[in-house]
Amino acid sequence: MEYSASAMKYSLWFVETRETARMLQDSSAEEVRNTVIEENIYQQRDRSRTINEYGCIIRRLEAIPEKLKALLLKTDVSTAKLIVLISAMASDRLFFELMHDVYRRKLHLGEEEFKDADWNIFIKDKRDQNDLVAGWTEGTIKRIKSSYVRYLVDSGLIQKEGTRRKRIIRPYIDPELRLILLQESMAGYLHALTGEQ
Predict the structure, then answer these.
(1) pLDDT tens column, 69-80
(2) Contact 173, 193 (CB under 8 A)
(3) How far apart are alpha carbons 59 and 169 in whole angstroms?
(4) Are the beta carbons of 75 and 153 closer than 8 angstroms?
(5) For residue 142, how many C-alpha atoms fall within 13 Å in the half-sphere facing its CB?
């Protein structure tokens, strides 16, 4: 999977993702798309934003196994938010690597804060390793970082305190979620959320 800067225009969209997954139980992706657009299910201001949001959500849902989609619909809100976050990781290589390489390490070492320096070091390394990322503007990098921080706040993995401090929250991992991730060869995603090696 190639790196992409598309995250700069996306949110976690937890409620919308769960509703889309629910609708997909009884309808095809095309039928759900039409309903979402015609009835403005996502409550966007214009049609193009709705189409863009649906495209992102369906890509994320297609990136996770059926067992995770089923759990998304029946589990508690905290676990469901983690599943939506996993779907974002599964469809966005840069975000997965941020979670696996930076967030996981911080949990493993018992660090309590996600700092701007962590992001800066991570993105510098990616720029050194990849020409596509190296070509992104500072504005693009800043917007991607902002989106990723929102994902983490919305999923409960960090808590913003003031304008700069981002406190790391170690998530509770439901045993069924853990089992599914292991069964579906997604241990890297589990480790990204738990700090396990």
Answers:
(1) 999 999 999 999
(2) yes
(3) 27
(4) no
(5) 3
